[in-house]
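sorry to bug you again but im stuck and you know this stuff better than me. what follows is a protein written twice so to speak, once as letters and once as structure tokens for the fold. mainly i need to know what kind of three dimensional shape the backbone takes. anything you notice is useful, everything is just below:
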Amino acid sequence: MKFLNAFAVFAIAGLTACAAPPQARVTAAPLPTPIKYVPPEVGLNNSGLDTALAGKLDKIVKVAIEEAVAPGVAIAVGRNGHIAYMKGYGYIDWNQPGSPAVDSNTLYDLASLTKVIATTTLAMILEEGGQLDINRTVVSYLPEFNSPEKAQITVKQILTHSGGLEAGANIYATARGRDQYLYQINARPLEYTPGTNMIYSDWDMIILQLVMERITGKTLDVLANEKIFKPLGMIDTQFQPAIALRPRTAPTQVDDARGGLLWGTVHDENAWAMGGVAGHAGLFSTAKDLALFSMMILNGGEGVNGVRIVKPPTIARWTARQGKESTRTRAVSPRWMRPSHDSGT
């Protein structure tokens, strides 16, 4: 299997399946009208960035594609609140003569970036608005999460992956939908006593999703679009992309158990079994949209279009170190990370 999504501050690289996509008869959706940026070729010169950057990026990506790291790459570089440079390289699939070329509008399966772009950002917004109290127990929001050993697990503990839940399991083999996942996660034994360790867990983000959905009465995809994507102008960021978007969606891998090529369908099996919308995986987006999101974070919660979705103190608190035991500066959710002297991040 060849699969990768790599995300730097303003760059996304996607790796797709080895097999070629079938020649599906689909109608290409019109490209969205983007937010008006400084044109890339002008922006690079006016941004203060080294004008040799384009050539350096070309060289790096050329080597990566030649070495089969990825069939295509999309890059967006931000500077001083603007996208200074965007470019696509290669194609959305391996060894396919008619495969569409990658550009800044190519959709990629974001995998675990869903936890950051959608789930924990929504938690920030709901906490700031007084709807979510991260110091409350999970069971106080989800009465079904009621096994005795889990009674004292708090929302903050699931955000910091210290609530005792295991990393994950193949629940997708038998469970379908939110209710069955909540039942299964509640029934499974804890990996450790809550608050005594930290294990990165997909279950934490699924439980957080269910808490927020219970509070608001809306599903995660609807909430994220209303409170994050639409306000910031992230018009391509979505769960479950339509079939019409396939010509600009990168496939991920061939999965015979799920009908062959996964193309516009979430790669993560548990997210798929939950219906394609899950707190830990399932989101699709573009390099351009991720640059918009990144600049919002760097700008203390305000988008490049002047729309604020969260206040600077909230951003600062949620991206601060949460424990001395960590070798990295982590946020309330460890999916937010900053470089430290010893981490190499």
